[in-house]
Amino acid sequence: MATSTRRSARRTEALSRERIVDAAVELLDTVGEGGLTFRALTERLATGPGAIYWHVANKEELLAAATEGVLAAALTLASSETAAASSGSRASAESPQDGIRAVGLGLFDAIEKHPWLATQLATQLSRSPWGSVAPRIFESIGRHVRALGVPEERWFTATSVLVHYILGAAGQNAANAESGRALAPGVDRPEFLDSVARAWEELDPEDYPFTRAVAGRLRDHDDHEQFLSGIDLVLAGLTTG
To answer: Distance between CA 20 and CA 13 in Å, rounded?
Structure first.
């Protein structure tokens, strides 16, 4: 009896909640939300469904845990990279603009790496704003907004604008990347962008004068630079408004 108890304890320790969540993230990355089932998870972990249900009640809880885990890792990495980059300069270390850019880029990269994350973050923000995701994102950006000297009555609005821009732009970038992976064999990103630019350049000049004028910029734009430029535009408005 004692031997059986010890074996059961070892199995429980081996199959931790962390292992389950890590496996769920791997499934989400490879097959998407539709492929994340408890059956697929039991096969990946080589265990039975009962062992998983011991740690996670249902798919909704599993998705929430996966989202929280990836988000926490992204924000921790953004914070550590900011600290490392500014270790030799006290002025840089105290720059709230750099802090916002680091958080934004951390989320951008995480969503690009995990395309399912954009939808899950939006779901958590809209359906469960009292959970851990919404406060964590707002805190990571809002503390820098406060350090910018933005008046307190504008903290919520300013932070909301940045959150919506960052998650929206990052989500669109992830969607673009997914579409890019679905291109016909032999078609790469520059070739695709060139075809779009040419199509824009051929639009009616009377109806689309602006789109024709900027079409050439589409060919060689850098997604990260464009994203950070958007953050800078928002920051310029916050600091001069």
So the answer is: 12
